[in-house]
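Quick review question:
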């Protein structure tokens, strides 16, 4: 059988199981099997498959039809032009989270023009694969990022990704990883311990893409999310706002005057999160939309600036 014939068979099966963009996904799965890029696969439908290749391809298609995320099958996902290892036990990077990182990068670059040579400290809450921390270090020079997560599985992925991507970080930038629970009483002391090692007093920017799905809605999500991705990275409590309440208070105590809190929010949560930040004393900035036009990033500035 040829690659083109196999893709056509898979296309119908993926469509039957409700997989979005079935042709694209079938072609991407074929890329994994024959170790060629998508342009080659689509341009050479006559490429012959060995029985072993065909068996492997069919196995991958079956996995995708169960709802297993393509990123888990592929073992990686692209984010801000970088490739991140991902798999069971960690939330795969999302395109909308790029807007979170880009917002913080713009803020820091603006500050660096005002204070040349100043080293900026950044806190990434719930780092997952490490995509936010790595995105910051690759986008800004002279920053130190503390990236934390409560999940040892997530931190294992983050550690591999940071080690692999560190050579591409901007000059003077680096990332440190710690296991920490942002809801724990000793969380702030763990962060301040890092600041002492860094010989710094406070943090310039706090970023987070926290769990924000209301507990009762998780079962209704697509199977690739509800069945495969870790509930720990999804469940935002009864109303989806549990972690925003925690972060708003703790970040305010860790940020320098005029420091920035940058949060990714779920669709429809922008106003509620903005109110939480105002109640915690932040000056809320204009929301940032994702590529679909959804208000996705909420930012607040601590007293003393803005």
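Suggested answer, residue by residue:
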């Amino acid at each position: 059988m040829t690659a083109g014939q196999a893709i056509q068979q898979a296309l119908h099966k993926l469509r039957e199981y409700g997989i979005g963009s079935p042709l694209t996904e079938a072609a991407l799965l074929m890329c994994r099997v024959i170790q060629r890029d998508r342009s080659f696969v689509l341009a050479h439908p006559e490429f012959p498959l060995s029985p072993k290749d065909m068996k492997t391809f069919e196995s991958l298609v079956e996995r995708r039809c169960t709802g297993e995320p393509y990123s888990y099958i592929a073992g990686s996902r692209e984010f801000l032009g970088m490739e991140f290892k991902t798999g069971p036990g960690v939330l795969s990077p999302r395109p909308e989270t790029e807007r979170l990182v880009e917002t913080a990068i713009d803020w820091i670059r603006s500050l660096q023009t005002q204070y040349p040579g100043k080293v900026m400290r950044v806190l990434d809450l719930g780092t997952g694969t490490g995509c936010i921390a790595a995105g910051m270090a690759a986008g800004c020079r002279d920053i130190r990022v503390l990236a934390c997560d409560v999940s040892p599985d997530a931190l294992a992925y983050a550690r591999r990704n940071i080690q692999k991507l560190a050579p591409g970080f901007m000059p003077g930038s680096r990332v440190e990883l710690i296991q920490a629970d942002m809801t724990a009483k000793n969380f702030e002391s763990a962060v301040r311990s890092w600041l002492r090692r860094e010989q710094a007093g406070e943090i310039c920017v706090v970023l987070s893409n926290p769990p924000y799905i209301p507990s009762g809605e998780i079962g209704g999500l697509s199977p690739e999310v509800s069945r495969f991705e870790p509930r720990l990275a999804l469940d935002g409590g009864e109303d989806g706002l549990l972690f925003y309440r925690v972060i708003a208070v703790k970040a305010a105590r860790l940020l320098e005057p005029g420091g920035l809190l940058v949060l990714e929010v779920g669709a429809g949560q922008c106003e509620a999160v903005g109110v939480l930040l105002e109640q915690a004393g932040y000056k809320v900035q204009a929301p940032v939309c994702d590529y679909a036009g959804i208000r996705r990033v909420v930012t607040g500035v601590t007293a003393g600036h803005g």
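Why it works: The domain at 90-301 is CATH 3.40.50.150 (Rossmann fold). Residues 8 and 122 are 48 Å apart (CA to CA).
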